[in-house]
Automatic annotation (TrEMBL):
The protein's required cofactors: Zn(2+)
EC annotation from Swiss-Prot or TrEMBL: 3.1.1.96
Organism expressing this protein natively: Halobaculum litoreum
Gene3D superfamilies: AF0625-like
Task performed by this protein: D-aminoacyl-tRNA deacylase with broad substrate specificity. By recycling D-aminoacyl-tRNA to D-amino acids and free tRNA molecules, this enzyme counteracts the toxicity associated with the formation of D-aminoacyl-tRNA entities in vivo.
Self-association state and partner proteins as the record states: Monomer.
Protein name stated in the entry: D-aminoacyl-tRNA deacylase
One Pfam family from the record: tRNA_deacylase
Length: 461
């Protein structure tokens, strides 16, 4: 169940609440056990489609501003899976739909406790951004923000969903309606965590500006979720990272993250995070790993090279390959691979990715080279890869065949020396013969096959 928190002190919040109630068939109820100012009195519930009495949304209103609230979780009729605080956004950013988690890396000037963080829900944040993208009115941007302000002492994960950035947008029915539709959307499958709940695919983030574009890219373009983000001004509030390990621990724990993504060098912060037991990774690592099973990533980085040194993952990594004994390691056929890359680099990369669990690369991950990991579930995975690479050679050669321990490629090509002995002058007639056209020389017809030579290359495999 999703708990929606509305603040009567926030006109954008009440506006979003009005749009929520307009967009669906809610049931009005009364809670006489709590004061109206504290979420009691009239509240609203929305059931699942076709389900009687199975509420998936409950909307409660409070008098205080969100950032000054104590934990509103007890106000709800049952413990929510997570809370969504519908709210205003203020800033100099123009019309904007945005969301973020709450916490304080330093002092608690705007609610909550210093050095404390509410539990994050990266899966919900992903769903909200998708909903914002779908419903944003013309002229509105979509963003995520770094972690800031309260409340922090919450029993369940929570996220702020906001419309901004000034009074015109707070009163705009289209902007408020877009936030409302995004909040209604998570019934389509959003969860608190991203990936396996036992080992969520989350990063805790550090560095960058308030609107965290690097972390928004990760959220939008990879299979990873983003937990708390310590943006630059919040890290300034933190001070020396090594002197505040409890704050780092709290941010990591509230993000449910085993990985930290750091923008910029920040060697002291990186060392402090490593001491906290999280792995510090870069955006390229996150993109390369994407949705590859994390246990398999661990095994292959240990068996071959780290992702940072060129390990990349193929399509077969998604085939539930056992990270202990579900793969074999072979050398890529270097000469065949090099020839195929020279003919069609994209087709060669596709051939390797299609058949491989993983492979080593060079040139900043752009060219396969070195070793390849193949699934043992296939009868002849290496032969299948060789055949795929041999297929690329057919873009240049007339005949390509596997012969013993080699791929043999043959081509009939224009022989300029033979043409010269027959009196063909260099120039246009050379070009015509090389293109497969016959030419006239001193009253004789010289056909292309007369001045061609069969060339053969063998590529060991």
């Amino acid at each position: 169940m999703i708990g929606i928190v509305v603040s009567r002190a926030d006109r954008a919040s009440t506006h979003i609440a009005e749009r929520l109630l307009d967009l669906a068939d809610w049931t009005e109820r009364t809670d006489g056990s709590r004061a109206d100012a504290d979420g009691g009195g009239t509240y609203h519930v929305l059931g699942r489609a076709g389900a009687d009495g199975d509420e998936r949304l409950e909307l409660r209103s409070f008098d205080d501003l969100h950032i000054r609230l104590d934990d509103p979780t007890p106000a709800f009729s049952r413990r929510p899976d997570y809370l969504v605080f519908v709210s205003r956004h203020a800033g100099d950013t123009g019309p904007l739909l945005t969301c973020h988690f709450t916490g304080n890396f330093g002092a608690a000037e705007y609610g909550g406790e210093a050095g404390s963080f509410a539990p994050a829900c990266p899966g919900v944040q992903r769903a909200l951004v998708a909903g914002f993208d779908e419903h944003a009115p013309d002229g509105y941007g979509v963003a995520i923000e770094g972690t800031h302000h309260g409340p922090t002492d919450l029993a369940v994960p929570a996220v702020f969903a906001e419309v901004g950035s000034d009074e015109a947008q707070w009163d705009d029915p289209a902007g408020a309606g877009a936030v409302a539709r995004a909040v209604l959307g998570p019934e389509r499958g959003a969860t608190v965590a991203v990936g396996d709940p036992e080992r969520p695919r989350h990063v805790v983030g550090f560095g960058g500006g308030h609107y965290a574009p690097r972390f928004e890219r990760v959220l939008r373009e990879t299979a990873w979720g983003v937990g708390h983000v310590g943006i630059d001004w919040q890290l300034d509030e933190l001070g020396h990272p090594g002197e505040h390990p409890a704050v780092l621990d709290a941010a990591i724990r509230a993000s449910d993250a085993d990985y930290a993504l750091v923008e910029g060098e920040r060697p002291v912060l990186r060392e402090a995070l490593a001491d906290r037991g999280v792995r510090v990774v870069g955006e390229s690592w996150v993109r390369a790993v994407d949705d590859t099973p994390l246990a398999l990533v661990d095994a292959l980085e240990a068996a071959l090279v780290p992702v940072a040194d060129g390990l990349r993952f193929g399509e077969r990594a998604a085939d539930d390959v056992d990270p202990t004994d579900g793969y074999r390691v072979d050398d890529l056929p270097a000469e065949l691979l090099a020839e195929a890359q020279g003919i069609d680099a994209d087709a060669t990369r596709a051939a390797v990715e299609t058949h491989a669990v993983a492979f080593e690369t060079e040139q900043a991950g752009t060219r396969a080279a070195g070793r390849v990991v193949l699934p043992v579930a296939d009868a002849d995975p290496y032969d299948a890869l060789v055949d795929a690479l041999a297929g690329v050679l057919r873009g240049k050669y007339d005949e390509v065949a596997r012969e013993g321990d080699a791929v043999v490629a043959r081509v009939e090509s224009f022989d300029p020396e033979r043409a010269a002995t027959l009196g063909v002058p260099e120039g246009p007639k050379f070009g015509a013969l090389s293109s497969g056209e016959a030419v006239e020389v001193n009253g004789r017809t010289i056909r292309p096959e007369t001045v061609s030579r069969r060339r053969e290359r063998a590529f060991p495999v």
